[in-house]
Amino acid sequence: MAMRDEILAQIQCAELAGSYEQMIKYLKELIKLDPKLNPEALQWLSTAYERVVGNRRYVWLEMNNENPKPRSSSKFHKFHVDSNPNKVENEIRHYCREIINMVTEKLLPIAETLDEKILFYKLLGEYNHYLTEIENGTACREARDAAIIGYSTAYELSNGYFASCNPIRLSLILNFSTFRYNILNHYDLAYQMAEQAYSIATDELNNLDEEDKPIPMQIIQSIRQNLSTWDRESKHRDSHRVRLNSY
């Protein structure tokens, strides 16, 4: 018990310091000690990998963007301004595979509650999704297929279980619809999923207490931004088809 308490204290200190790589280090020690995580530890796990992989994805996407946006002033982004994209790719690959293996081999097999199962399948969808962005050939196809299974399973399990404004369900729909749009090119399915979630969640947002609104509102806004972008791109595709048909 003393060792567990010490690890928990180290995780909390790392989170307060914004040292998410250290959080992951101590979370792995916690899971090695006991893979049955309580809700707080599951939140730490989600947050740590989201930050570590998310920062690197941002940098990698900007490196591969022909018209990059002004870079963030964060320490991580400054550190990677002159990095080789291959270096960042390898870091993304490492952390994605690490969380995928952790969930598949240690966490999902002992999941008991529906909350846990939804979260774990959601994580499998997300981190395989991120692998599809950097992999090629067979590795990309395998990651794509695994992401479909993870996202679809989490989505089906969450239907009728989570409220429409539940942050886990909203973030699942945000990421699943983005995957459908960007990776699978299922434009209509992606739009329909996002639009339905946006409409229902917006209607029910007013029923939440004020202290429960900020996170759902932030995700709903991200869904709205995607819908606006997809609307513009749909009009562009339609216009392009009209020009082709006129030649």
Question: Would you kindly provide a written description of the structure presented here, covering whatever features stand out?
Answer:
- There is one protein chain.
- The protein has 247 residues and is mostly helical.
- The protein has a domain at 163-247.
- It contains ten helices and no strands.
- It has helices at 2-16, 20-33, 39-63, 75-79, 85-107, 114-134, 137-158, 167-182, 187-205, 214-246.
- The longest helix has 33 residues, at 214-246.
List descriptors.
disordered C terminus; 0% strand; 247 residues; 10 helices; mainly alpha
Give the strand tally. Answer: 0
Low-pLDDT windows of residues: 67-81, 241-247
**Count of DSSP helices?**
10
Helix coverage percent of residues?
A: over 70%
Any idea what the radius of gyration is? 19 Å
Strand content: under 5%
**What are the secondary-structure elements, in order, as H or E?**
HHHHHHHHHH
The largest β sheet comes out as: none
- The overall average pLDDT, rounded, is 89
Indicate the structural class. mainly alpha
Distance between the termini: 75 Å
Shape: globular
Summarize the structure.
The protein has helices at 2-16, 20-33, 39-63, 75-79, 85-107, 114-134, 137-158, 167-182, 187-205, 214-246. With 247 residues, it is mainly α.
